[in-house]
Batch of 3 targets.
Target 1
Amino acid sequence: MTTLVTGASGFLGSHVTRQLVARGDAVRVLLRASSNNRAIADLPLEYVTGDLRDTTSLARALDGVSRVFHVAADYRLWAKRKQEIYDSNVGGTKNLLEAAKRAGVSQFIYTSTVATIAVDRPEHPNEFTEARLEEMVGHYKRSKWQAEREVLDAAKQGFPAVVAMPTTPVGPWDWKPTPTGKIILDFLNGKMPGYVETGLNFVGVEECATGHLLVSEKGKIAERYLLGAENLTLKQVLDTLADLTGLPAPKLKIPHGLALGVAYANTAFSRLLGREPGIPVEGVKIAQHMMFVDAKRAQKELGFKPGSVAAAFERAVRWYADNGYVSPRRAKKIAAARAA
């Protein structure tokens, strides 16, 4: 049985791919010609060059495939051309669904996101929370909400699709890095003078990848499964990182209004310079909402066992420090704290 993985060169996708190979599965990966395969270069994989927007390449990628893990996504909180996010996340998912139907695949595991349900509710949202498109903040969230609907609609019509919903993965090999990884790196490099009052659910990336395999083994068609571990405020995250590294945590709590004003100014200045803003407006708007969730269902129904999030942060810190993402001076302090 051949399994196709999209997004295999990315943070979560590389871990899913690695665990499939470790289990002995025959794995084919779809990579764009411009993709960097550094996270999976050591694995025995079959490569197909293509793009989710190129239906001809999808037909090649799915030839003889019985199962698909669609992990690929354009995960950006800022883009010069916003339509690119929709073309990849919505249009690409629709293209892959149609190609998978024609190929007769027996299972399609779609990687959605906690963002499609993590909205303001009296109780913590879960897989059964119905959120509206107008509740989605920003293009990434809106595009993932729309793509998830495409998958669930196909499943309700009989297509064998199941939805995995990672919360916020952290850990090693976030080489790009993701927006979450940038937060960690800003702390490690002393570029975070303060914090805003916000919160997320976090999960170790390795356990999240294992959760994807459990969704494949035990998940029900047309169902969603949150893969998360702990709800933490940003302040708790920074305090955890301080404990792990010996670096000081920022003490200044920044009002959301001020943070938003700074983000708008930073975006305008960055536009003049023709570069990506360091403080995306979309990210600050998202931070105005607590994204705490109830992620117990996967533990009860799938046997999902998330590990310690503090340990996941420690693995992330070690990887960033060992791979040149941290300034030499700060890396030396982190090494001393780890040796203590």
Target 2
Amino acid sequence: MLTLPVFEWVRPQSLDEALAFFTQAPAESLWIAGGTDAVPNLKHRLHEPKRVISLAGVRELHYVREDDAGMHLGALLTLRELSEHARVRAEYPALAKAASLVASPQIRNMGTLGGNLCLDTRCTYYNQSYFWREALGFCLKKDGTKCHVVPQGKRCVAAHSSDVAPVLIALGAEVEIATPPAQAGGAASLRRIAVDTFFVGDGVHNNVLLPGELVTRLIIPAASRGLSAGYQKLRPRGAIDFPMLSVAAAGRTQAGAFTQLRIVVSALGAKPRVLGQLDALAVGKAADEAQFSAIAAAAYKQCHPLINVPYDHEWRHEMVPVFVKRVLRDAFPKG
């Protein structure tokens, strides 16, 4: 039986209080929201904090609001709430769909939007018990110096596994980040960046968050209203499993032709990949099956799955064009 390590548990009631707790012991603290991924990782000794800071009591991060700037989603919104919210379903059904496909109802009842965005990367050689990892020889992501997937590599290639991130990137969303007082010259501060630039290509720590920083809000800008969007997820079963491949698309058409298109492919490497050259491939051209196939072929050339999850990487590669076409049909059903 896997047990939890010994740690102090604190449950702040406000964002300022949460940031203050982290500042007291920045090298020894761990944020936890729903805990659906963090708790198993604690049992595997992948995280070994002396203090766990629960965000469950920080109610100021739990909301859905709309204004002239766009839709504002609090980081502690649960995935179930996100998937069932009437305004989200009406304006951004692809985001609601992505949230609805995470794991199981029990997980979605606990898991949060911010937690899914910041989900730890996954790998065959990382998400194992301490005994298993010690027997093999620890990996670059935790306790070791060698990547077992790319032995000559200098960066971890554990797979990005968030469902909401590809859709948020496709929609041009921004993420708001709170910085603790000690890092902000004596006062807590907030900054906003595009979700696209939130992620970096290193599986050890695949986002820009500094120690103690916290995602507080996601903003889908008003300019994204009216986008046609879709989301598709490949996994072994219809529930529970993390994606082997995920694809999101968002764009606009006029008179049956693309005027705007963004496609994001994820779960293949440490960060989501925004497909390149889509302006030349799509804009001004018909949103039809022939063009869907051309875009899918380009995606196949750009995406190269690694052996970082326990599924055949060549088969996952073959599924890239299949799922790109599916997501385009999903987003543009009249194509």
Target 3
Amino acid sequence: MRRRSYMEISSMIVFLSIISILVQFAAYYFIASPYLVLGISSVIVIISTHILLEQSLTYESCTVYSILLLFISIIITFLTYLGTDANLLPFTNTLFGIIVVNWFIPMAHCFIRNMFDYGSRIEKFNSFYRNVSIVFLLFYIGALLYLSFSDSPITSIYHTRSGKYNFTPFWWVATLIEDYINDMIPFSDVIVYLISRILTYIPYGFYSVLILRDRSKLVRLLLLLLLPSIIELAQYFIIPSRCDIDDVIYAFIGGAIGGLWYHIINHIYHAISGRDFLTKDSDYRYSNSTLLF
């Protein structure tokens, strides 16, 4: 297949980005079911990503496409959240789902495609993964800092505690369980409290182990404790009522799950492709591209 020129690829990226956004937000406007909206959004992104890979023969075109989708969908969501576009689009959590789709689906599609691609027809997967990961990590760190230090965080996740810091392990979850037993709160509050804190640090664990995959297990273990410990120490001085030893424990559990997730992905990737995830191989043309991290 003839490799398209940069001008042709650039025009195709812009065109597919506009079509994808129009389809996604038209579905959001006309369809009530959030699952159907996210399903349609995923399908249009998969089709567009496939077209770009077939026409450009490089994963880097998907980087630009994914970033454009993220930028436009985040702007629309932000304006809708502020009420600027309230007359046009109502704000619901489905908008956040569209943002996730616009980041995750191109990443997953390119990952699967690269895993099964034994040849060298499509290049620069490592560069694509690095760039998309950087974009994700910027938003991830921003969201983590907002949840940790904002004056009005999500109340269902961060309950307001009276008093100061807590250095007694599992004190707050025990309090929630006691409130549930006394019919003061639903059991879902306990589950949300635990799951949200664990899930929050799964990406941190995944990328920590990925970056330090060649280092000793002790170094990786210490890194899983580093960020949550720094955040809790900062909360001790800034917002004492948020400082809780439990958050470090749950963050470590989430980080460990994220690290395990990386090893599982790498094992599957190696079993199918015969090479480790994101490893340069001189037998492939993309081995000359910049290695991730």
